[in-house]
């Protein structure tokens, strides 16, 4: 069933005209649209998505093309996927599409949905987490300035490329045997700390302190472990990157100083990666079991890619325990690359990482499901919050964010594309009430990878980056086109939309 484009509500007779579809979508603010019940069958709650005027055009054009093609071919448009998620059993609040939302497997990428743990019918869906479990972003600061690295920019780019293995199927340089992997899956960053690949303070600036306690390595298949064993400390391919960045603008001086960012021109490093082949296999294995559970428990969904299981069932619990183990692997992976990045910088500057002040500002997760406490209709409820291509964004004084950030709110890292800026946001109380403490995660794709390769030229993209003074190293030339700025939405549009409705943007 996986990979099928079949939809229960699609077909020549079931697809409405674009004009008819628009009757179910209502603007409720300058940057928010409500998806009414009836847009797709069996909606338990309404949907909502956030886009400014520029992003709005992309969102509605996708729906228009779907209507004109009578629903045949490719992924469903993001707005349809948001609505299909609203039909899942046990969903509470709304199915939320963030400004970087685009079509994905089952859930849209940039889709958040919360499920009531007190409802025995509530489900967990691997499509609401994604195949790259705990894909996330980590930001390191330094005390180095742009003027210090400019003369050695090419050498530093090459040094990072030499230290961190990249590409599909790349193998890591961090020594690991089967016993080590079992321990890493259970311990997360505690394993990295024990083995000397992390600093004690790194854990404090990481969601869950880099370890999900419900992880159970026995729920990770032998095939998943075989795929993960050689890949620790590797970046992977696709949109994963290790990027040397420079602070360009500071919008809130006090918040920036709390993060150790105190001036324009300061150099930072952003690392974006996840759980590699291990996480992908955990998701694949779970989907097989959940299709069986759906048949047994008579769970009906609008899209077969929304395979799910009751949270309380063996299939639901096994997935959550295996997902947590894969999440721990991802934190160990980013910690290992942090270690390698610190080595590369120390070698380049002939000093120590400590002397370069290479501390972790924060580490956020994009693809994950977590049990959290939230206020719903004035009452505290325990929810399973699925965040796929979206980021936790808790406000000031929340007990789950570090002491350092209690007054500012949780740092939220929004990676741009190569050639564009990235942002750091902070969580707000508005975001807690509107989106269960969730915001965007990046720019979000505007073109498919295939279309990017067809329409963009390798030399043209490299030339534009060179004109901006940007040096890159890639494992495969095709990635240059696939990850070109033109392949993505404008990250500033995404952040401006969040800033208006969900979270504040603070700096660079």
Q: Give the amount of beta strand, in percent.
A: 15-25%
Q: Indicate the low-confidence ranges by residue numbers.
A: 1-13
Number of strands: 18
Largest sheet: 7 strands, mixed
Number of helical segments with 4 or more residues: 17
Structural class: alpha+beta
Separation of the first and last Cα atoms: 43 Å
Q: What is the helix content?
A: 25-40%
Mean model confidence by pLDDT: 92
The radius of gyration over CA amounts to 22 Å
Q: If strands are numbered along the chain, what order do they take across the biggest sheet?
A: 1-2-3-4-5-13-12
Q: Label the overall shape.
A: globular
Give me the secondary-structure topology.
Blueprint: H1 18-22, E1 25-29, E2 32-35, E3 47-50, H2 53-68, H3 78-85, E4 91-102, E5 109-116, E6 123-124, E7 136-145, H4 146-149, H5 153-163, H6 178-187, H7 189-195, H8 200-204, H9 222-228, E8 241-246, H10 253-258, E9 266-273, H11 276-297, E10 309-310, H12 314-349, E11 360-365, E12 368-376, E13 379-388, E14 391-392, E15 411-414, E16 423-426, H13 429-435, E17 438-439, H14 449-455, H15 458-467, H16 478-482, H17 491-501, E18 504-507
Parallel strand pairs: 3-4
Antiparallel strand pairs: 1-2, 2-3, 4-5, 5-13, 6-10, 7-9, 7-11, 8-9, 12-13, 14-17, 15-16, 16-18
Helix pairs in contact: 5-12, 6-7, 6-12, 9-11, 11-12
């Amino acid at each position: 069933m996986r990979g099928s484009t079949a939809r229960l509500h699609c077909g020549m007779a079931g697809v409405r005209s674009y004009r008819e579809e628009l009757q179910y979508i209502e603007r409720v603010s300058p940057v928010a649209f409500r998806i009414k019940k009836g847009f797709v069958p069996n909606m338990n709650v309404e949907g909502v998505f956030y886009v400014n005027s520029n992003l709005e055009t992309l969102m509605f054009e996708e729906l228009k093309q779907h209507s004109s093609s009578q629903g045949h071919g490719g992924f469903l448009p993001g707005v349809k996927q948001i609505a299909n998620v609203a039909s899942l059993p046990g969903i509470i609040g709304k199915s939320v599409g963030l400004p970087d939302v685009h079509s994905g497997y089952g859930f849209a990428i940039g889709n958040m949905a919360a499920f009531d743990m007190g409802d025995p019918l509530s489900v967990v869906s691997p499509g609401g987490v994604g195949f790259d479990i705990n894909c996330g972003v980590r930001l390191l600061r330094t005390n180095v300035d742009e003027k210090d690295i400019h003369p050695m920019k090419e050498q530093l780019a090459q040094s990072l490329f030499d230290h961190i293995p990249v590409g599909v199927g790349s193998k890591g340089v961090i020594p690991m045997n089967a016993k080590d992997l079992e321990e890493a899956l259970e311990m997360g960053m505690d394993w990295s700390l024990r083995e000397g690949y992390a600093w004690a303070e790194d854990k404090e600036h990481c969601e869950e302190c880099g370890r999900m306690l419900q992880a159970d390595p026995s729920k990770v298949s032998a095939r998943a472990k075989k795929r993960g064993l050689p890949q620790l400390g590797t970046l992977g391919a696709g949109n994963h990157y290790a990027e040397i960045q420079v602070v360009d603008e500071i919008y809130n001086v006090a918040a920036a100083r709390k993060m150790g960012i105190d001036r324009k021109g300061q150099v930072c490093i952003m690392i974006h990666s996840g759980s590699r082949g291990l996480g992908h296999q955990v998701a694949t294995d779970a989907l097989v079991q959940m299709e069986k559970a759906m048949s047994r428990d008579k769970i009906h969904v609008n899209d077969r890619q929304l395979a799910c299981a009751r949270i309380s069932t063996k299939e639901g619990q096994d997935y959550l325990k295996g997902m947590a183990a894969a999440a721990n692997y991802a934190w160990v992976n980013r910690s290992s690359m942090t270690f390698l990045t610190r080595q590369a910088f120390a070698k380049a500057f002939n000093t120590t990482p400590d002397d370069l002040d290479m501390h972790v500002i924060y580490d956020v997760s994009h693809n994950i499901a977590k049990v959290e406490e939230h206020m719903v209709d004035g009452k505290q409820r325990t929810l399973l919050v699925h965040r796929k291509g979206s980021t936790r964004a808790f406000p000031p004084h929340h007990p789950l964010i570090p002491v350092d950030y209690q007054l500012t709110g949780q740092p939220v890292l929004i990676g741009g594309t190569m050639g564009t800026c990235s942002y750091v946001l902070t969580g707000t109380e508005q975001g807690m009430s509107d989106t269960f403490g969730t915001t965007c995660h990046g720019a979000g794709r505007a073109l498919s990878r295939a279309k990017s390769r067809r329409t963009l030229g390798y030399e043209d993209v490299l030339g534009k980056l060179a004109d901006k003074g940007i040096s890159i190293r890639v494992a495969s030339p095709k990635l240059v086109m696939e990850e070109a700025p033109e392949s993505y939405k404008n990250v500033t549009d995404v952040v401006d939309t969040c800033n208006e409705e969900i979270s504040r943007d603070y700096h660079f």
